[in-house]
Amino acid sequence: MRIARFSLDGNVAFGVVEGDAETEGGPVLDIIKGHPFAEFELSGQKLPLDKVRLLPPVLPSKVVAIGRNYAEHAKELGNEVPDAPVVFFKPSTSLCGPHDPVTYPSFSSEVHYEAELAVVIGRLCKDVPRERVKDVILGYTCGNDITARDIQRSELQWARAKGFDTSCPLGPWVETELDASDLGVMCTVNGEQRQLGRTSEMVRSVEDLVVHITEAMTLLPGDVILTGTPAGVGPLTVGDEVAVTIEGIGTLTNKVVKRD
Q: Tell me: the pLDDT tens digits for 7-18?
């Protein structure tokens, strides 16, 4: 099931995406009564997908991100694979949705893309045992951990480098029926492939990460875990169109713009 969050005429709601580009009339949204973090009903009121604005599929209280979770990515930046996961936060204000502009920050001259599988939490959870991890996950979406690399190198904490406004595109929707253990992860810039990896290459699995994170903190419905990026990261410039595609989910596309 693909669950999207959208706006139409100033109203925000969730809906289930039905059909695809090959379907007669194109894909549609069946509006959800309420929200997707509990049992829900479909309203039967359907809207063409191309008539609404897709938003980030959830509005998390926090985005918990993982650094250096692919060995080749750690190596390309001159780092070792860490003994424990590198955990950092991206604020909710960093989110943007499909086709939203990514604003190049004024304080950086080296902004990179990082295509990532994003885990969406479906229920309040703490101290999750490995055998219960699947029970607390709503589904998965595409993420782009956009990073001001020069700032990351120059500042001890990564808050500004990875937390600036629009540095966390998410979307286009949450796929709830997916085995995330071996999915293709790709990033293109202006149609040219820059990253290509598989989630099976992650140093620590989704299960490892949920267990590790919830040892320390409570995760709330809608919270997001970014699971790390494959090798091949590189620069973005104003005017670039960056797209993250994850097997079984879809494609998240954003354009880089200059700050007004």
A: 999 999 999 999
Two tokens, residue 76: 């390309």
Return the CATH number of 2-54, one of 2.30.30.370, 3.40.50.1370, 3.30.70.260, 3.40.640.10: 2.30.30.370
Tokens of 151: 């700032």
Element spanning 254, H or E? strand 250-258
Task: Identify residue 134 by its one-letter amino acid code.
Answer: K
CA atoms within 13 A on the CB side of 108: 29
Token pair belonging to 56: 């980030």
Mean pLDDT of 50-79: 93
Q: Is 162 helix (H, G, I), strand (E, B) or coil?
A: helix
C-alpha 158/C-alpha 63 separation (Å) is 14
Predicted pLDDT at 77: 83
Residue 168, classed as helix, strand or coil, is strand
Please state the rounded mean pLDDT for residues 126-135: 98
Q: Are strands 2-8 and 224-226 parallel, antiparallel or unpaired?
A: unpaired
Determine the distance from the C-alpha atom of residue 208 to the mean position of all C-alpha atoms in its chain, rounded to a whole number: 18
> Alpha-carbon distance 226 to 113, whole Å?
13
